[in-house]
Amino acid sequence: MSKWYSRFNTENATVRIFFLPYAGGSASIYQDWTSQLPPGVEAVLIQLPGRANRFGEELISKMPTLINQLFENIVEMTDLPYIIFGHSMGSRIGYQLIDFLKKNEYPLPVHFIASGSKAPHQKRHKSGSYLLPEEEFIQEIKRLDATPQEIIDNKELLNICINILRSDFEVADYQSEIPNIKHNISFTLLFGLFDEEVCFDDIEEWKLHFESDIDVILFNGGHFFINSHQSKLISEINKICHAIERG
């Protein structure tokens, strides 16, 4: 078992989903989801360095380095039809992974689900925030409202969180060019109606990267609608899984 992932529902799997975390997140953010997936759908939860069971490992702040190492550890699991799901930073990592796989002629996912993210060529909202002085950076963490108050109130834990988030925000800031040939992959885009990190115009920007029509699903929530509207989100994922299983 690689330290890069944990696997769930492996028995008799016919479809596989890779779950990529948002900035500051670990594989555990998706663990409760695994029991709600249909039979035959394996969940692979990606664990990035420097957090949870990989605490103490060097953080990766450069997208190309991260993609190379991630690819090396999951490429053997592209043998089944597979989906890539990512939220926020995870969406941007997922797209770069697809780009890398295509350029190196490896099997591509049958479906990509991007959640709460601008298109890969766009500047991230609050781009460059990883360079902010500490007090301003803490205010940015508070604005995003994803870090528990007990961590913010604990100086030691807060310092760990700051280091991880600075690294992750730098990864998320990575921008790629609009491809000459669009990706021919089924694509679903998930948006929170009150998400300050994205806007409706970003939907059109994503269309510059994919050949097929984009299926856009809106949620009545903010940036972390994946938590506040988890049941609806998993239901949408399960519909995609059933469609793939039916061929």
What is the terminal-to-terminal distance? 30 Å
- Report the total helices: 8
Count of extended strands: 7
Identify low-pLDDT runs.
none
Main sheet makeup:
7 strands, mixed
Radius of gyration: 17 Å
Helix content: 25-40%
Tell me the series of helices and strands, N- to C-terminal: EEEHEHEHHHEHEHH
* Percentage of β-strand residues: 15-25%
| Mean model confidence by pLDDT | 94
Structural class: alpha/beta
Would you summarize the structure shown here?
With 247 residues, the protein is an alpha/beta fold. It is built from 8 helices and 7 strands. The longest helix is centred in the middle third of the chain and has 18 residues.
Question: Could you characterize the architecture of this molecule?
Answer:
The chain has 8 helices and 7 strands; from the N terminus they run E-E-E-H-E-H-E-H-H-H-E-H-E-H-H. The protein is an alpha/beta fold and 247 residues long. The protein has a 7-stranded mixed sheet, with helices on both faces. Helix 2 links the parallel strand 4 and strand 5. It is globular and about 50 Å long. The protein starts with a strand and ends with a helix. 36% of the residues are buried.
